[in-house]
Amino acid sequence: MKARRTPPLSAGYSEGHATPTASPRNIKGDTVRVLPGDYYVTGDPGITIVTILGSCVAACVRDPFTGFGGLNHFMLPEGETGEWNGVGAAFRYGNFAMEALINAVLKSGCARQNLEVKLFGGANMHGSAAGVGSKNALFAKRYLDMEGIPLASADLGGEYGRRIHYNPATGKVQRLILKSREDEALRTVESRYASSLKQTSVGGDIDLFD
């Protein structure tokens, strides 16, 4: 059964989880930070969404005609067999992260064919599980391909973490490469997040709105 199209949301509407954070000197307006496992969407043109990525991936999704959009931050959990694939928990976590964000943008009144998507992250950082960043990045690209959603741009892979500043109103992304001294702290955060995924079940399915 197809979901009904809801009326366009107001410009001040927001959805998801994010933490207010101090704005860098080169960013005007307010900033909010999205942590691993969360997503956030907003129609406020004065908000910039910030996240810090190592092997995790973030998708920036928006309606380019209204500027309503947001960002998620996810990692695929590793199964008990040590395999990373599109079956079971790994697929459900990646699916949930992408569909929750995309559905929130579609709910604003955006037509599916107008979605603008950019991908970032997926680094294979020193000291992290072998190839985990590449596997996260590959999942995100395959997901968009399976759903028939074009990828506007991407900055994936490499060996270093990234700090992403995203303003959905303009679609502008500022990407900063993290210095090596920040890598250890980032790996610690992602390691704790990965451990939490092994202990958390994901129930039910989410379908994309037409």
Give a written overview of the molecule.
By secondary structure, this protein is of the alpha+beta class. The protein has one domain: 2-Layer Sandwich (60s Ribosomal Protein L30, Chain: A). It contains three helices and eleven strands; from the N terminus they run E-E-E-E-E-E-E-H-E-H-E-E-E-H. The strands form two sheets. It has a six-stranded mixed β-sheet. The protein has a five-stranded mixed β-sheet with strand order 2-3-5-10-11, with no helix packed on it. The N and C termini lie close together (10 Å). Mean pLDDT is 77; it is low at 1-8, 79-88 and 201-210.
Short description:
It contains 3 helices and 11 strands; from the N terminus they run E-E-E-E-E-E-E-H-E-H-E-E-E-H.
Q: Which secondary structure elements does this structure contain, and how are they paired or packed?
A:
Blueprint: E1 14-16, E2 19-21, E3 30-33, E4 39-42, E5 47-53, E6 57-62, E7 69-72, H1 89-107, E8 116-121, H2 132-147, E9 153-156, E10 162-167, E11 172-177, H3 183-198
Parallel strand pairs: 3-5, 8-9
Antiparallel strand pairs: 1-4, 2-3, 4-7, 5-10, 6-7, 6-8, 10-11
CATH architectural designation: 2-Layer Sandwich
Structural class: alpha+beta
Low-confidence stretches: 1-8, 79-88, 201-210
Strand order of the largest sheet: 1-4-7-6-8-9
Major sheet summary line: 6 strands, mixed
Please tell me the total number of domains: 1
